[in-house]
Amino acid sequence: MPITMYDLAGSDPNRRFSPFCWRTRMALAHKGLEVETVPWRFTETDELPPPNDGRVPVIVDGGKVVHDSSAIADYLDGRYADRPLFPGLAARGLSKFVQNWTETVLQAGMVRLIVLDIWKHIGPADQVYFRQSREQRFGTTLEKVAEDREARLPAFRASLDPLRRTVERQPYVCGDAPAYADYIVFGAFQWARATSDFELLAPDDPVRVWRGRMLDLYGGLGRRAPGYGD
Amino acid sequence: MPITMYDLAGSDPNRRFSPFCWRTRMALAHKGLEVETVPWRFTETDELPPPNDGRVPVIVDGGKVVHDSSAIADYLDGRYADRPLFPGLAARGLSKFVQNWTETVLQAGMVRLIVLDIWKHIGPADQVYFRQSREQRFGTTLEKVAEDREARLPAFRASLDPLRRTVERQPYVCGDAPAYADYIVFGAFQWARATSDFELLAPDDPVRVWRGRMLDLYGGLGRRAPGYGD
């Protein structure tokens, strides 16, 4: 029986744009596990299986419900030992560093470039929720957050230096083969790709070459999903 | 026969302040290998064993000369399989990400706070070399680089967020036990500790708790070295 995954969707149910859901989607593909995704919207909190904290990703695997992308990664490595998401003793700890960089630098910088584009791709009910919750977080309107993004692009690109140097010198964040830390970083780029035509990366950026490599994985899983760009 | 390690020293030969040498020093201790260190100064380029590229760390292990901290880490894991510096398949790749963050964010931010303090701790010949090469790199005087460092401290501390979140939630960068990525980050803090009484971390910073844990390792190897602070 395939695993069920609740996956954040836009007004187009095929537009899947949650960076956290993309981590899980890639992790399931890495393990070679079959999945049936259920499109879910921010405001459909009642439609998740219990225990329900109103967020995705959530997976249901033979009756077992697991929510939160990090908990799902741990669950998958515990339940399906083959093709580990954290290969070797130190990989889980080190992947946390990559995750914390992704959340405090990459996603924090990226959202200020694409937040208005995200809003444009979700349905009316979600738009109300999204605008209200994000404007409260930023302390200003979505339009103000996205203003002058061209001027902020060079600083955003410079903030990618740790990632850039890494994938300039080895094929994946995890070394010779992709693993969970790659999916964490890639999730952020899929968030942007699904919702925004604003090009975050210069054409000759090694990060872009790595992103292309990630888009090609698992039969082009990331590339086939509705989105913009390469 | 112990391994010989050429180690950057200040005017006081016991003041060892290279972040790269500290990586190697901790790596040797991690492996439980005996080491005899040789104090070396920037301007003593002729005193390194061939092949000599004028930089440290360099180790000599039974006639085999290895230079560059990264090459030394790889050499040690190849030659001495026990207690790996890169535990598991993905650890080496992921440690590169931590290294690239350390070099482009942590060390790049730190040097602008401590560069004048470093200069004060080295001998006259090294002072001439250091001032000339660093002023060329920064395009201004060491005094100008260090100016207003109090004002820049909050931004420096904020830049440590990926590290902070990681060691707030697990004891080491590598997870439950320290490994090479911890030594990479710790090397930067030892660079500051050896040369500067400027406190980089707030008293309640989780990074400071982690640094204390690192200072305690291997019989207090890092703490016993001449330096400032805890």
Q: What tags apply to this protein structure?
A:
alpha+beta, homodimer, 9 helices, 230 residues, four-stranded mixed sheet
Strand content of chain A: 5-15%
**Cα distance spanning the termini of chain A:** 34 Å
Low-confidence stretches of chain A: none
Broad shape of chain A: globular
Number of helices of chain A: 9
Q: What is the strand arrangement across the widest sheet of chain A?
A: 2-1-3-4
Rg calc of chain A: 17 Å
For the report, how would you describe the main beta sheet of chain A? 4 strands, mixed
Report the mean per-residue pLDDT of chain A as an integer.
Answer: 97
Run of helices and strands of chain A: EHEEEHHHHHHHH
Per-chain topology:
2 copies of one chain form a homodimer.
Chain A: E1 3-8, H1 19-31, E2 35-40, E3 58-61, E4 64-67, H2 69-79, H3 91-120, H4 124-138, H5 142-146, H6 149-159, H7 161-169, H8 180-195, H9 206-224
Helix pairs in contact in A: 1-2, 1-8, 3-6, 3-8, 7-9
